[in-house]
Amino acid sequence: MILALAVPARAEPLPVREVAKGVYLYQGAHGEATAENHGGIANIGFVVGDASVAVIDSGGSAHQGRRLHEAIRQVTDLPIRYVINTHVHPDHIFGNAAFLADEPDFVGHAKLPRAVAARGAYYLEGLKQRLGSASEGSEVVPPSLTVAERLDLDLGDRVLRLTAHRTAHTDHDLSVYDAVTGTLFAGDLLFRERVPVVDGSLKGWLNVMSELRAIEARRVVPGHGTPTADWPAALDRQESYLRLLRDEIRAVIRDGGTMEQAVASVAAAERDAWLLFDDYNPRNVVTAFTELEWE
């Protein structure tokens, strides 16, 4: 009797859309990572050149990464040469494992290896707890190519310009600019609709946003939220929130208030302006208070 070997079912392709010529995006859900969404809460995508493909953030689990891989193969058979991670957060990196067989360069900020070493195991354990069996195959894949300041990646008559930023959303944020279409992948340096998350430096983020405004992009893909051609005005809403966070925390500190008082009051006027506000604004206040109390 001949036994048939089991062939793993191919993943269903992610429903990506072409936001500019050769630039494809899957827009993540606004919410927390769950087994039902396989960690698919961040914007992820890919860019196709004449000779190769670059992935820009791979997703929140190996399953989502496999679906992204299938989406790429629906568009092109060109080799996947680069998998770029804009920063270490789980919703952006755990799809990396789905691309290991392609043997790409995994690309990140020069400080990303340190962040992966410090947080990777913890994030993976958290992923397993939240997703259960839906996290199967996910693993920590560190960068093999890092960017200290700037790096150009040529996909074949298509150059992606990678910029390593100073501490902002994290201490290792990377943005990606496609020179052909003028599309800026800002990673989590830009949140739209969902409240921004401060994991690095509030003051640093405000400074980096001033630098981002100088980029002559024709459209921007945020780390979370809807892409837009309204650039650099797309930064305005986020900047207003972060400035309010800074100014109201400074006022609490100046008046001798405590962190607990700040958590209860700071940026309360913004509650109706952002999704997931009550989940993340208190964390932002704690992070920013710690930074600002020693000015």
Describe this structure in words.
Helix 6 (259-265) packs antiparallel against helix 7. The protein has helices spanning 62-75, 90-93, 112-131, 202-212, 236-254, 259-265, 277-292, and strands spanning 17-20, 23-26, 44-48, 53-56, 80-84, 105-109, 145-147, 150-154, 159-164, 174-178, 183-191, 219-224. The radius of gyration is 19 Å and the shape is globular. It has a single domain (17-232), classed as Ribonuclease Z/Hydroxyacylglutathione hydrolase-like (Metallo-beta-lactamase, Chain A), CATH 3.60.15. It has a seven-stranded mixed beta sheet with strand order 1-2-3-4-5-6-7, with no helix packed on it. The protein has a five-stranded mixed beta sheet with strand order 8-9-10-11-12, with helices on one face. Strand 8 (150-154) and strand 9 form a beta hairpin. With 295 residues, it is an alpha/beta fold.
